[in-house]
Amino acid sequence: MLGARLAEPGEFTLRAYLNNKIDLVQAESIADLIDASTAGAARCALRSLQGKFSETINELVCSLTDLRMQIEAALDFPEEEIDWLEKSDLITQLHQLDEKLQKVLISSQRGHLLREGANIVLIGQPNVGKSSLLNRLAGDEVSIVTEIPGTTRDAIQQLIQIEGIPLHIIDTAGLRETEDVVEKKGIERTYAAMSKADLVLLMIDSQNELSEADQNLLGKLPTNIPVLIVINKIDLLNQSAKIEDKNGYTIIYLSAKTGAGIEILCEKILALIGWHSHVAGEGIFMARQRHLHALDQAQNHLSKSITWATNGEALEVLAEELRLTQYSLSSIVGEFSADDLLGEIFSHFCIGK
Ligand SMILES: Nc1nc2c(ncn2[C@@H]2O[C@H](COP(=O)(O)OP(=O)(O)OP(=O)(O)O)[C@@H](O)[C@H]2O)c(=O)[nH]1
Ligand SMILES: [Mg+2]
């Protein structure tokens, strides 16, 4: 074959990266563009490919380098009168940097949601209308609905979009004591789905009170996962749709059958998974978990350095925290990225990209 061979996954992108044609964020955005599941996600990936995310990170790194230079100079020439490194001035600059970093983090968290979506798990007693709600949200009959309790046996996942945010809605087997082997397995899957949830919707029939079983269920949920209580079938009691806070829970009254209250539910879902549409205008960065982790680390180091500076600690300690802040930020665009990290990133490409 005249020495020809098939390209490795991501090989062309890797070469572009190694030849400094693009940075790591841009390389990742090529894969994101290919994988984008919504128009919003594709637009966002394109912005990263054009360098918007990298530019913002590089600006932060520049401000940081500038500040570090001032501190290093003060360390090297302690006897000089370096008036621009007044303590108050230093703290102001650190706070400004922290504010900028905070904005990037928010934009990145939004982008991460746009990229990954969120897992929303519907749980509750049999027959309360979980599958009906999934169908209502999906606008399609994806899950079987019958008046027989125990209809759903297996967890059913459906991808929907609200305001362009991909949401994986997982309908589960109604939770109850049962001797049925298949249903038992289904219930095990319900618990497994719950542990991976970003948000749990606990559904109750409006004709019933919150039962002891429901309360037990609430007690079993991991505390870090937000819960929304959904009271369904309000059409049967001629109630109107509403949202209220009671005993530390948010409760939404709706009807999966008529659609009343669905808009209230969608709005609350977005808020609980961290998509605040009113924060628009700050931009969205197509962030991966890796980027969020690095930004988090950067913010930790920066807030430590603010504490050190405020407490008047030695400049050396401050300088070290700022070095670590810069290291975390630079790892996003790839300046200090280890080889195994590159292998991990490029292996996710399909062959020949
Ligand atoms: N009137 C009324 N009936 C509803 C509503 N939502 C669901 N139902 C009915 O309630 C019954 C059960 O609905 P499903 O959606 O299958 O309930 P489920 O919670 O998925 O039940 P399992 O899969 O058995 O756990 C069906 O007969 C639905 O038509 C509603 O908002 N109003
Ligand atoms: Mg069902």
Give the structural class.
Answer: alpha/beta
CATH topology of the largest domain: Four Helix Bundle (Hemerythrin (Met), subunit A)
CATH superfamily of the largest domain: tRNA modification GTPase MnmE domain 2
Secondary structure: helix percent: 40-55%
Number of distinct helices = 12
Specify the biggest β-sheet. Answer: 7 strands, mixed
CATH architecture of the largest domain: Up-down Bundle
Characterise this structure.
The relative contact order is 0.17. The chain is globular and about 80 Å long. It contains twelve helices and seven strands. The protein folds into two domains: 11-76 and 83-114 and 288-347, tRNA modification GTPase MnmE domain 2 (Four Helix Bundle (Hemerythrin (Met), subunit A)), CATH 1.20.120.430; 118-272, 3-Layer(aba) Sandwich (Rossmann fold). The mean pLDDT is 85. By secondary structure, the protein is α/β, with parallel strands linked by helices. It starts with 10 loop residues before the first helix and ends in a 6-residue tail after the last helix. It has a seven-stranded mixed beta sheet, with helices on both faces. The structure holds guanosine-5'-triphosphate and magnesium ion (MG). Residues 130-131, 143, 151-152, 171 line the site of magnesium ion (MG). The site of magnesium ion has 6 residues, from helix 6.
